[in-house]
Amino acid sequence: MSAESGLSTFRDKHTGGIWAKHDPMRLASPEGFSEDPKLVLDWYSSRRRNLAAAKPNPAHTSLAAHKSMTHITQNVDDLLERAGARNTIHLHGTLIADRCHARCGYRENIDLAKPPKPRPCPNCNAPLRPDVVWFGESLPSDAWARAEQSCLTTELLLVIGTSACVYPAAGLIEVARSAGAQIICINTEKIDGLAKNDIGLIGTAGDLVPKLLSSTDCSDVQ
Ligand code: ZN
Predict the structure, then answer these.
(1) What pLDDT does 190 receive?
(2) If the chain, 222 residues long, is cut into consecutive pieces of 10 residues, what is the mean pLDDT of each piece?
(3) Which of 45, 99, 116, 180 has the fewest beta carbons closer than 10 A?
(4) CA distance 186 to 158
(5) Cα 128 to middle of ligand 1, angstroms
(6) What is the CATH number of the domain that holds 105?
(7) Residue 54's pLDDT is what?
(8) Residue 219 resides in a domain
(9) How far apart are CA 61 and CA 82, in angstroms?
(10) Which residues have a Cβ under 8 Å from the Cβ of 32 and sit 6 or more positions away?
(11) Is 128 exposed, middle or buried (0-12, 13-18, 19+ CB in 10 A)?
């Protein structure tokens, strides 16, 4: 969804794709951070500046307008929040904060437009790092528990911008489906993993989400 706001991860047009030559495993893993922290933090600084300049698109704003919705996202940007979303669960963490790499509990919000230089944790002197989930790291358990609870109790689950078969997040779809929710998937490419009663819509989120939400009374979906 945020790719339509000009954000992508490894082949960002704003940086001329300069990061595309790097192995994602080196840019977003604890091992890569230990090996070359400057490279990793430079990449995140570049992404943070891009995010500072990005704006929510019509998909973000139409989702955020439904104040009773819970938004479960694998994106690490804050575009849903900037669009006005109240209840957002970040399964993969967020670019708007740094945290202690040693997990002593220290966390601080940062200025996206002026990403901080490498610095140690004021509590324990371990390096600070973006508060995101890297390859090989587990998802934050509190966020996962809240997401699972939402999926257990919802009547409608919109799945946007994924083929719906990438775990562990795809497991949330099964939770909602088993609990009787209607599943609607929106993706620009073929959607794998749809069950018999699921609905799949092919197109961009910026086009389809506003149309769907303006024509559907979400409180009335059985
Ligand atoms: Zn610390």
Answers:
(1) 84
(2) 78 58 88 95 94 96 96 96 97 97 97 96 98 95 97 97 79 96 93 90 95 70 39
(3) 180
(4) 8
(5) 7
(6) 3.40.50.1220
(7) 95
(8) no
(9) 9
(10) 23, 25, 26, 39, 40, 134
(11) buried
Alpha carbons within 13 A on the beta-carbon side of 206: 10
3-state secondary structure of 23: coil
What is the model's pLDDT at position 19? 74
Structural domain span for residue 173: 2-213
Catalytic one of 14, 22, 66, 92: 92
Please report, for residues 16, 143, 214, 220, the alpha-carbon distance to residue 147 in angstroms, rounded to integers and kept in the order given: 35, 6, 25, 22
The predicted pLDDT at position 222 comes to: 36
How many independent structural domains does the chain possess? Answer: 1
Output the CA 168–ligand 1 centroid distance in Å.
Answer: 28
Is 92 annotated in the active site? yes
Amino acid found at 38: K
pLDDT value at residue 186: 94
Q: What separation in Å is there between the alpha carbon of 135 and the centre of ligand 1?
A: 21
